[in-house]
Design brief:
Layout lengths: L3 H15 L48 H4 L11 H26 L11 H9 L6 H7 L1
């Protein structure tokens, strides 16, 4: 049996995200005479009292038609709702960015030397820069 708090979590988190809710409550025509079982993950079952303790089911039980999703080997059911998890991730990422900006602004020392400055626009004419060789610019086009 699923505890009451877990049942509420199943109703709020698992059902809306894993089961497509249709407007009508008609039985699924693709199932035929196969029983429609509740869509609850085996991860919410009590681990004690089963014949197969690994899969948390008794031998000979009817399998759910989505057994690959609802079994113990299916995707883990998140304990935290998605909007809270996204908020927590945003807070963590913001803390990393704030720490990086703080380190860059306050903990990185200034340069110990003044950058070298050259006359004549950084020795552009002496070293053959763009303005010294206007023919080189026209030949690239």
């Amino acid at each position: 049996m699923i505890p009451l708090a877990r049942r509420e979590l199943v109703r709020r988190v698992v059902r809306p995200s894993l089961v497509r809710q249709y407007a009508s409550k008609e039985p699924n025509p693709q199932l035929g005479d196969y029983p429609e079982l509740p869509n609850v993950s085996a991860q919410y079952r009590n681990p004690l009292g089963w014949q197969d303790k690994l899969l948390r089911r008794n031998f000979g039980d009817t399998l759910h038609h989505h057994e690959e999703i609802n079994s113990m080997w299916g995707p883990d059911i998140p304990v935290t709702p998605p909007h809270i998890a996204l908020r927590q991730f945003g807070i963590a990422a913001g803390c990393f960015v704030a720490a990086g900006l703080f380190i860059r602004a306050f903990l990185v020392p200034d340069r110990p030397a003044i950058p070298r400055e050259y006359p004549f626009n950084g020795l552009e004419t002496e070293l053959g820069g763009h303005k010294a060789n206007p023919e080189a610019e026209s030949s690239d086009e």
